[in-house]
Amino acid sequence: MSGTEGTSGATTGTGAREEGCVFCGIVGGDVPAELVASTDRVVAFRDLSPQAPLHVLVVPRAHHADVVALGAADPATLADLVATAARVAADGGCTAGEHRLVFNTGTSAGQTVHHAHGHVLAAPGASLDGHL
Ligand code: 5GP
Ligand code: ZN
């Protein structure tokens, strides 16, 4: 058979774990990170180089190159990512429903890790002006 639903495709970029991907490593527990939330679909952890008082990355457990690829392949997971980002922001002290969620998409737009991720950026009680 030559189907595309095989279980071994570690480098397909369409849901499997991608060899050498740092966020796949965090999801798999091989790379340390400070986890702040997780669901069966997504994991949220603090950014290594925070650009705001609250700076958390929310990533799908499965590897997708960017948010557009994620939305096309698995919209339910994108919805969960957005909902988890809102929960992280609220738990971090933001007014419910008020936070910044940024998806750098593609190298020329500043994406450096090519595993889809949303940046939750917040400065509870202050302005986000000047942050990312
Ligand atoms: P991008 O530039 O791709 O939108 O964002 C990638 C983000 O991942 C950056 O803000 C960077 O600080 C963060 N980052 C890169 N490597 C690691 C890591 O190993 N652990 C954590 N927690 N964050 C990382
Ligand atoms: Zn990955």
Automatic annotation (TrEMBL):
Gene3D superfamilies assigned: HIT-like
Source organism (scientific name): Pseudokineococcus lusitanus
Motif (Histidine triad motif): 115-119
Protein name in the entry: Histidine triad (HIT) family protein
Residues of the HIT domain: 22-132
Active-site annotation: 117
GO MF annotations in UniProt: catalytic activity
Annotated InterPro entries: Histidine_triad_HIT, HIT-like, HIT-like_sf
